[in-house]
Amino acid sequence: MSGPNPIEAVFETLAATAPEIRAGLPGRRTALDQENVTGDQQLAADVWADELLAERLGTIDGIGEYASEERQSVEDVGNGYAIAIDPLDGSSNLKSNNPMGTVVGIYDGSFPTTGQDLVAAGFVLYGPITTMVVAREGIPEGYVVANGDRQSTGPVKLPTEPTVYGFGGREPNWNHSFAEYVEGVRSELKLRYGGAMIADVSQVLSYGGIFGYPGLRNRPEGKLRLLFEAAPIAYIVEHAGGASTDGSQSLLEVPAEAIHQRTPTFVGNESYISRLEAAVDW
Ligand code: AHM
Ligand code: MG
Predict the structure, then answer these.
(1) Whose Cα sits closest to atom 18 in ligand 1?
(2) Is 246 a residue whose pLDDT tops 50?
(3) SS3 111
(4) Residue whose CA lies nearest to ligand 1 atom number 17
(5) 185 and 253 housed in the same domain
(6) Which residues have CB under 6 Å of ligand 1?
């Protein structure tokens, strides 16, 4: 399928495919006897959503590379933009029937690359309703997805008054400087953590605040993946008026040496991001 241009076509296709993904989830909640390349347990839904999206997005004219969290290597699918996708972000939430998402970054470059090559990013959130946020140029736009069509809900701007926070990882594995920073945040903001990045970032975009997954004592690079998750979300939040960091620099500046590279990931209001950069010593 191709649209007016490859970037628009990616988001149109994602909106058209989202209801199908949602409808296909009930029968695909079982764990497969396999892990993806970064060692996560795969569900039938992860593999199925990846195959569906590779088929739909990989055949768009003007898309040259398809990289997915669920596959080992980059697929060469023609000439043009490189797309990185997490087909079902937060899929462990399928068991408990909590929200999940799909996140995509469109890069004008070849993998591995940095967030500076991003020309657009977007996500679908499978919550009580299906919503979508797309950032291209200027302020990101929100949509409600119904019957495969997008209806705009207007610009997405990070509220200037922060309200919520959510940080991943087990607290005993947090580094001391980060734990101290969180003590301050706890006394100021309200905890909202659901275990699916897209859903947690959507709360930050709606109410203001900070979401993050830190580097851990036993895993200094943290959990979230730079090209599939961290950079696309940073692109969206920065365009919405917020900031991002890996602890010392914008997530859009972190160079990727490997497709599945992980990074400590934080997005949210500038005041909380700069305080975090001053506080952490990893
Ligand atoms: P996934 O892409 O394999 O679902 O993993 C990423 C998810 C993020 O959505 C979320 O922020 C994080 O893992 C939650 O991890 P935890 O369960 O350790 O809190
Ligand atoms: Mg994910």
Answers:
(1) 169
(2) yes
(3) coil
(4) 195
(5) yes
(6) 40, 69, 86, 89-92, 168, 195-197, 213, 223
pTM of the full structure: 0.96
- In Å, how far are 127, 136, 232, 258, 259 from 4, measured between CA atoms? 29, 15, 22, 32, 29
Residue 4 is predicted with a pLDDT of 60
Q: State the greatest distance between any 2 C-alpha atoms of the chain, in Å, as a whole number.
A: 51
Q: Same domain, yes or no, for 114 and 16?
A: yes
Q: Which atom of ligand 1 is nearest to the CA of 86?
A: 2
Residue nearest to atom 14 of ligand 1 (CA): 195
Are 31 and 128 members of one domain? yes
Digit-coded pLDDT (tens) for 90-101: 999 999 999 999
To test the pocket of ligand 1, the residue of 213, 216, 218 to mutate (highest count of ligand atoms within 8 Å of its CB) is 213
In a domain, 58, yes or no: yes
Measured CA distances, 278 to 93, 162, 219, 230, 245 (Å): 33, 19, 21, 20, 11
